[in-house]
Amino acid sequence: MELLPEIENRQSIRKFTNKTVNKEQLKRIVEAGRRAPSAKNRQPWRFVVITDQELKEKIKVAAFNQEYVSEAGAIIAACSTNIDYRMPNGQLSHPIDISFAMAFMMLQAVHEGLGTCVITTFDEQEVKDMLTVPHSMRVILLLLVGHTAETPFPESRKSFERISVFNHW
Ligand SMILES: Cc1cc2nc3c(=O)[nH]c(=O)nc-3n(C[C@H](O)[C@H](O)[C@H](O)COP(=O)(O)O)c2cc1C
Q1: C-alpha 30: how far from its chain's center?
Q2: Phi, psi at residue 86, to the nearest 5°?
Q3: Residue 76 has what pLDDT?
Q4: How far is the CA of 2 from the centre of ligand 1 (A)?
Q5: How much is the average pLDDT of 56-70?
Q6: Among 71, 98, 117, 148, which residue has the most ligand 1 atoms within 8 Å of its CB, making it the best to mutate?
Q7: What is the pLDDT of residues 82-124, one digit of tens each?
Q8: Which residue has its alpha carbon closest to ligand 1 atom 31?
Q9: What is the architecture, at CATH level 2, of domain 5-150?
Q10: Ligand 1 centroid, distance to 167 Cα (angstroms)
Q11: What is the mean pLDDT of residues 7-25?
């Protein structure tokens, strides 16, 4: 089955070279997220792009010292600007909206020839403090972006038949 090459080629990358990520590339990646859909088009997000090495090292510590966190050329902290809105289906919108934006960013990063990894293993309060995120807001995800230094063995997926059906569960 032929898919977009960015989808075919994306894998979580946990080894990065020390090459700097070009600022224009980072801007295009964030722009991809900016164009993502969100519930009622509320766009409840603010993306903090961290390229400063000292700050990346601090984030690494807040991410329980996972080495690859500070080795990535950039870390994009996806923060909420509204945590209250629930959609008519009862779900909170901000984690869903932000996940769409992150997915768009990941695919743009692959298109740019870069590797990414979503990080949720971090102490949110520590990251909030170092990025001066307002008290009432959340840091939902971190996205590592950098020049890839590995080709990981592809993670398996459940079969198409197992995860999808037509018309009835
Ligand atoms: C919501 C979410 C949270 C994740 N959190 C982490 C994390 O904290 N650390 C990490 O190394 N990878 C994390 N990942 C990456 C997953 O482990 C990875 O996507 C999964 O194993 C499938 O591998 P692939 O991305 O290479 O296809 C996360 C992915 C998602 C979507």
Answers
A1: 10
A2: -105, 140
A3: 99
A4: 24
A5: 98
A6: 117
A7: 999 999 999 999 999 999 999 999 999 999 999 999 999 999 9
A8: 118
A9: 3-Layer(aba) Sandwich (3.40)
A10: 30
A11: 97
